[in-house]
């Protein structure tokens, strides 16, 4: 099984075409005996301090840990269908809860803090994916999904202030907002729309007292995906060289973010990849989840660390006008 679909020689800078997928676990998500959909494996995040991977089975409400010594072990058994996960600047786990319809964070003492569960007094839909910027603000997507009776009339992207006192709606023109990620310098926010098979980009405006928001006037479509193979825009990351990675038809797409050019596809044949992360001691291993499995592939490139190092953002002019 060759895990790369070349689109020119640039893909060879990312992955050895002869690299093989190593399957680490299976039996997550899927369907029950009656064919009822149970969910998928999701939320992989690499914990550099713990030297392990954490991921979820969002249908069964189980959180797992993987390392090369113990393999896959159970961490939590009642996550309320946790989906996307990340680590904040204090290495605390932050996750989106489907059933709880909220974003939560595990503190160092083991207690759990609710980051956001409503907007202007109305319950969130079903938070899906989350990132934390270098200043500690928490950004998450909140699409309409499954049979949730929404109290909101929108599928949005939100920012929560580092002190958790303010929840701001920053984007609302999405059919199904899903994965999101910042460029390394945090000057650009990328958000994908699964329903439209698109990735959109927004230049960040740091004049705002709230600590930055996407400038709607700069919105552009980076790429519109297509293909007959399983997969859609979902999990998304940036590597150490600024390339944009996103799940899509056939596997994980590697994209030049400024032009939208497809560099190549890390192929995962016959499966829908739900999410992924860079892991290992030098962040050069691609860990990924499918509907029912956990796998990994060695790379020739490195990812960006999570939590994020401090970014150099552009200062606001003294007298903007």
Description:
With 321 residues, the protein is mostly beta strands. It is 0% helix and 45% strand. It is built from no helices and 30 strands. The chain has strands at residues 4-6, 22-26, 30-31, 37-39, 41-47, 52-57, 62-67, 71-76, 82-87, 93-97, 102-106, 112-116, 118-119, 122-123, 130-132, 138-142, 156-160, 167-171, 177-182, 188-193, 198-205, 213-214, 220-224, 236-238, 244-248, 251-255, 262-267, 273-279, 285-290, 293-298. A five-stranded antiparallel sheet has the order 1-27-26-25-24, with no helix packed on it. A hairpin with a 3-residue loop joins strand 7 and strand 8. It is globular, with a radius of gyration of 18 Å. Mean pLDDT is 92; it is low at 315-321.
Short account of what is shown:
With 321 residues, this protein is mainly β. Helices cover 0% and strands 45% of the residues.
Count helical runs: 0
Distance between the termini: 57 Å
Main sheet summary: 5 strands, antiparallel
Derived from helix and strand composition plus strand pairing, the structural class reads mainly beta
Strand portion: over 45%
Give the proportion of residues in helices: under 10%
Number of separate strands:
30
If you average the pLDDT, what whole number results?
92
SSE pattern: EEEEEEEEEEEEEEEEEEEEEEEEEEEEEE
Low-confidence runs (pLDDT<50, min 5 residues)? 315-321
Shape: globular
Features:
about 325 residues, mainly beta, about 45% strand
List strands and helices in order, with pairings.
Elements (H helix, E strand, L loop, with lengths): L3 E3 L15 E5 L3 E2 L5 E3 L1 E7 L4 E6 L4 E6 L3 E6 L5 E6 L5 E5 L4 E5 L5 E5 L1 E2 L2 E2 L6 E3 L5 E5 L13 E5 L6 E5 L5 E6 L5 E6 L4 E8 L7 E2 L5 E5 L11 E3 L5 E5 L2 E5 L6 E6 L5 E7 L5 E6 L2 E6 L23
Antiparallel strand pairs: 1-27, 2-30, 3-4, 5-6, 6-7, 7-8, 9-10, 10-11, 11-12, 13-14, 15-16, 16-17, 17-18, 19-20, 20-21, 21-22, 21-23, 24-25, 25-26, 26-27, 28-29, 29-30
